Amino acid sequence: MDRITLDYEGRFLRRRSLTTASGASLLVDLAETVSLNQGDAFLTTGGARIAIDAAADDGQRTKLFGDAQRILAEDAVNAFLFQLPKLGVWNRNLTGVWENSPVQANDVTGVAWK
Three-state SS string across 7-32, please? Predict the structure, then answer.
């Protein structure tokens, strides 16, 4: 079964051209505006079903991430997250060195002397 992922606003539609996950085009032409939900589906004139996937909006996604973090913090505390600081001392005439390196590697491709 093919699928279409629509955000919250995109799931309110009456007439619109959509593209499925497989790349097929679909023209939706309904009698009135409808609200589509996760698990709904279109039935094409050829008899194929195209499932609707509801994309999470930013507010909902943030709430879900917060809920997941709370569950982990309350129910599954079994490790500490810790990263040693990456300290470095360089000659002031050396340019191109990252002041705060976000990775554990020393990228020297852009390093040069003044």
Answer: CCHHHEEEEEEEECCCCCEEEEEEEE
* pLDDT per residue as tens digits for the range 19-47: 999 999 999 999 999 999 999 999 998 89
Average pLDDT over residues 11-15: 93
In CATH terms, 2-58 corresponds, of 2.40.50.140, 1.10.260.40, 2.60.260.20, 3.40.50.261, to 2.60.260.20
Q: Which residue has the tokens 């705060």?
A: 100
Give pTM, 2 decimals: 0.50
